[in-house]
Design brief:
- The complex is a heterodimer of chains A (186) and B (436).
- Chain A has a single domain, classed as Beta Polymerase, domain 2 (2-Layer Sandwich).
- Helix content of chain A is 40%, strand content 13%.
- Helix content of chain B is 45%, strand content 16%.
- In chain B, strand 7 and strand 8 form a beta hairpin.
- The longest helix of chain B is centred in the last third of the chain and has 26 residues.
- Chain B is globular and about 60 Å long.
- Chain B starts with 9 loop residues before the first helix and ends with a helix.
- The chains are: A alpha+beta (186), B alpha/beta (436).
Amino acid sequence: MYEKISESDTETQLDRKQVSSLVEAAENIRDNALNLARKKTHPREPDVEMAKFLERRDFVDYFKHGLAQEVSQVIATYDQRVQAVYIFEESANPDAETEEYLQFVDLTIHLLVLVTSASAALESFVTSLDRALTEALNELPSDPFAMRSSFLNVMPITENDIKDGRGYAVLLSSIYARPLKIWQRA
Amino acid sequence: MNLTTETPTSTSEAHHFGRGILGTALTQLDNAFDLLVLDEGLRALIRQPERELTVAVPIRRDDGTVSVYTGFRVQHSSARGPCKGGIRFHPVVDLNEVRALALLMTLKCAVANLPYGGAKGGISVDPAGLSNYELERLTRRYAAAIMPILGGKRDIPAPDVNTNPQIMAWFMDTVSMIQGHLAPEVVTGKPIELGGSQGRIDATGRGVAITAIEMLRRLARNPKDTSVAVQGYGNVGSHAARILAQEYGCRIVGISDVSGGLYNPKGLSIVSLNDYVDRYPGMLLSGYVADGHMDRISNEELLTLDVDVLIPAAIENQITERNADLIRAQVLVEGANGPTTFEADAILRERGIQVVPDILANAGGVIVSYLEWVQDLQWFFLEASEVQTRLHDVMQRAFEEVWSLAERRQIDMRSAAYLLAVQRVAEAISQRGIFP
């Protein structure tokens, strides 16, 4: 049911993610991201329940970013063709000036993954990872997380896509809402 | 685009930025200059930002160390009023792009006839790398550093990339503490509780819907007999679709987001879709359980649907020379910034497709930003319905002015919008004269 992901990673600059199953990988992603978000968010009362933290917009923003970084590491470890990963917000509308804090938090993690070439294996892996991650996040004591059936929107792009301005690759040259690079292969 | 050290020629600027958004804007600017027969001095003055400030933004990190970031604020023009523009936090804040964005804000405000010039600013920082206390300290230090050129009558920032109402609240508090009194008018995009405006959540989408309806009116089309496709179901697209469907009776036949689209020539159930969006915030349309009457389509297919009105409200550069010939809509309303490339624009023009340019269509957000500032200055706050009425009036008037100019000059709406904007800025400069 769960795919075994590659343990080898010849890039010594990367942390190696030795995981035996996607379930474990997903739980690690979730827990690491929660720890990161707790470190970033003040006040850090240790006794505050996670449910309370998950009601805070700033905590959820950090958590989402942490998830994106962790997912990027896992994807990059799985597939050596991955060169860089960017996060973007689909609803970003600079110049609107008014509502950058949407009524809700968009919990979908939108990633542009720069690859040397497209790969059906990567797509399949991401689908499985999303399924496992969704199960892990559904366990959180928060309705917005508990009710979701998917969290990842991973879009592979190539250098040619960027050069030709194809699809969402055009965001990398955007002056309005440029994505944030969150992972880079050394 | 080194505007501060030389008087640029139009050709060099457009070439520098190629045919992207900025190159297109500069080309349009030059076209407007030519149509207005402006002298070189005035042209140079309009091209060049009035003021730029670069500041060091040191903060003490949570671990006690000090990090120093670089902040910018570019004020393009104050000829028509205080400067207005967002603040972004991003590792890549390119000064040339900030200058160009400030110029575009000047023009956007002028098209809507808001008493503002344009500005833009930011800090080169990855905000996700800071804790929330560090983010607060960064914001406060930046606010204090650029405060000499800010103020309700000088320069009024707002949220932009990676900034939000909380950051605006810290900004306002910093300025207020230094000034010794509450000054809500110094920024917009604040939380409602601190002087933010009602009626802003759907402001941009509402503005897009209003311009779509105004165009239909000019073409003697009944909105109730009109089919609409919307690319992008985020804040702009979803509200535009909802308003067109529920307030004007349009038939929304196609919508899409980053995951793909849905199509039903008889009309999609916007109520059901918005219920899905409300119950599962941020969930993509690929997760929506389509009924048997809906087809799943791609973003590319949505753009070429046989509809009356197409609203690209996602990202830039979606209508290009590759697909411009395949667009079947009669009207295109640019909800996003720069969705149509320069080459595509020419093709659409030749084909007689009416384009409501982004600089007009998506100005709803800036207009409500202006209303927030006005409310703060008066300490008198409007209900959401009042804000919507005022937004409607301003958008309707702006559309009429651009349309009339386009008709009079026999030019397309994008050219007319730029011409009107430049004309207003040039007029203000001319009447004020050159100090001293």
